[in-house]
Amino acid sequence: MNHSLLDLLRNGDYILYARHGEATVGEDQPNLNLQRCITQRNLSETGRNEAIYFGEVLRTLQIPVSYPIIVSPFCRTIETAELAFGWENIQIDPFWSEIYNLSGDLSAPEQKRILDSLQSELEIKPAPGSNKVIIAHGFPEGIGLGEIPNMGTVIIKPLGQGNGFEVIAKLSLADLSGFVV
Known about the structure:
This is Histidine phosphatase family protein. It comes from Sinanaerobacter chloroacetimidivorans. A 6-stranded mixed β-sheet has the order 5-4-6-1-7-8. A two-stranded antiparallel ribbon has the order 2-3. The chain is 34% helix and 19% strand. The longest helix is centred in the first third of the chain and has 16 residues, at 45-60. The protein has a single domain, classed as Rossmann fold, CATH 3.40.50. Helix 3 (75-85) links the parallel strand 4 (69-71) and strand 5 (90-92). It is an alpha/beta fold. The protein has helices at residues 3-11, 45-60, 75-85, 97-101, 108-122, 173-177, and strands spanning 15-19, 23-25, 42-43, 69-71, 90-92, 132-136, 153-158, 165-171.
């Protein structure tokens, strides 16, 4: 990350779309139940450490974030946000589980519906002087925001409703932490 990007983030007005930390414990079951973590892949110890570090890096770099942090209803995304920002600062939004569904076998109209909704969400500007944080899932290659590594972050500049958005940068957790002195 270069210093001009850090300055932009400190001024706010961006969306930080982050993928959850490493999830290697268990697997997503065919009968996946969002209320039952046992039916899902969950954070590994590495993933938990990544989540804690992600929150610490944003605070250390003095990147302002608006609360609540928006999360997908999967156990791994909720735990990531909770470890990074605290339980009281998160809000579960069922829409973000749709991103997970993009990796499945969807019809073209269903995929378009999800991507159109994604665009609408990413066009909404955050509160002035702060950044909105969304913790959800990666995307299949070439779809939506594309592949995102564990705890990777896509920096998005919303252009206002109906005007689209611009991807400013895609950062790994190591990229993001490169500014911590």
